[in-house]
Amino acid sequence: MKNKLAIALALGAVTTTALAGPVEDQIRFRQSAYSFLGWNTAKIKAQAADHPETFNKDQVIAAANAIAAVANSGLNELYGEGTDKGTGWKPTRLKAEYFEKQAEVKEIDATFIKEANELQKVAASGDVAAIKTQFGKVGATCKSCHDLIRVRE
Amino acid sequence: MKIEVHVWDWPLRLFHWLLVLAVVGAYATGKVGGEWTDWHGRFGSLVLGLVIFRLIWGFIGSTHARFINFFPTFSRLLAHLKGDWHGVGHNPVGALAVFALLATLLFLVGTGLFANDDIAFEGPLYYLIDKDFSDKLSGLHIRSVNVLLVLVAVHVAAISFYQHVKKTDLIKPMLTGKKQLPKSLAPSSAQPVGVLRFVFSLLLAVTVVWSVWGGDPLKYLTPLAGVQTAQANGKS
To answer: In this structure, are residues B30 and B41 in contact, taking their beta carbons and an 8 Å threshold?
Structure first.
């Protein structure tokens, strides 16, 4: 009986860690996610805002799809307890206040997902001006999160 | 008996009010972010041009625009505190604020040129340095905004103190350039603005802004002039 309980507990522990992994993994995964986002946002910024003459509809659609996919991937799972300290690819910049500001964080997360989904739709239309505007809205949600829970360099 | 004395030359006044516009614009767009971030860069460029202009004008502008005539030396500050200072331009304490504001703005502009927001904005000189250094400068950029806010608050508070307590209007002279002064104190009016000197300062300021953007403004002007842009993809 005791053995079974121990196995169940161990399994439980394994599945919980499997969801998010140890602290370093969570930090590494989320840093990778944002870095991947950066590649895609840079593409849209370049092609829809800075150099519209280079606009490539397929690339922008692909980038918007990638951004929406990351937004919808459940990033909050990577913000487990204790992940305000630790090193992934580099030391994390998550503020300890993250854990106290859950209401605001959830709201930002929901807005980010909503705007990213909208960007995916707008990108499919190929309307450069509309993409630029919608992209700005996505960027504003990035900023609201950075301002709230990211340590300044 | 008071007489009207010409104190602030028109380039100085234009500089001042454009700077108000540029700083307020840069602050607001920086706060809002998103699509407005590009405008933050534009307002920042205006601040850069204006500050460069002011630095040059501080040497070749008319009397009360010149740094040498209001530099807050220790003896001037002491005289002012004792009530023995009787100039007509910036008083020595005000001069401290002028230099502090200019230095802070220069720092903000200097760091902003190399900054990035980790979203979709990079300052025009970002590509010259590595990302880690840019991140550091971006952090300093944002932090030093607080210094600017304090200085602006002090500046506005001082003017309102003069307005309401000392009954001295400092705003109108910054609009008209003229101050009403007791005849006993009144010096001769500031020397007239040298047009060539103004053009020189303006051109130098514009050149600096133009250069940091790698000649990008040219792209907006050439289509207006109907010139074929032969510019290939400058940035890759």
So the answer is: no
CB atoms within 10 A of CB B120: 25
* Terminal CA-CA length for chain A: 53
pLDDT band at residue B236 using 50, 70 and 90 as cut-offs? very low
CA distance A62 to chain B (A): 17
Chain B residue at shortest CA distance from A131: B35
The model's pTM: 0.86
d(CA B80, CA B223): 55
CB nearest to B33's CB, from A133, A135, A140: A140
Shortest CA distance from B142: residue in chain A = A152
Contacts with A145 from chain B: Cβ below 8 Å: none
Domains and CATH numbers, chain A: 22-149 (1.20.120.10)
> Which residue among A38, A139, A152 sits closest to B37, beta carbon to beta carbon?
A139
Check CB contact of A17 with chain B, cutoff 8 Å: no
Over the stretch B38-80, which tens digit does the pLDDT of each residue have?
A: 999 999 999 999 999 999 999 999 999 999 999 999 999 999 9
This model of the complex carries an ipTM of: 0.82
d(CA B109, CA B44): 6
- The predicted pLDDT at position B228 comes to 47
Compute the average pLDDT of residues A42-53: 95
Q: Please name the member of A45, A54, A153 whose beta carbon is closest to the beta carbon of B138.
A: A153
The verdict on a CB contact (< 8 Å) between A42 and B120 is: yes
Q: How far is B31 from chain A (nearest CA, A)?
A: 9
Q: A139: which chain B residues are within 8 Å (Cβ-Cβ)?
A: 33-35, 37, 119-120
Confidence band for B232, pLDDT divided at 50, 70 and 90: very low
Domain ranges in chain B? Answer: 2-225
Q: CA-to-CA distance for B104 and B50, rounded, in angstroms?
A: 13
Contacts of A54 in chain B (CB under 8 A): 233
Q: Residue A5's pLDDT band (boundaries 50, 70, 90)?
A: low
Q: B63: which 2 tokens? A: 């009397």
Q: Per the CATH hierarchy, to which homologous superfamily does domain B2-225 belong? A: Transmembrane di-heme cytochromes, Chain C (1.20.950.20)
Question: How far from B117 is each of A20, A34, B7, B37, CA to CA, in Å?
Answer: 28, 13, 42, 9
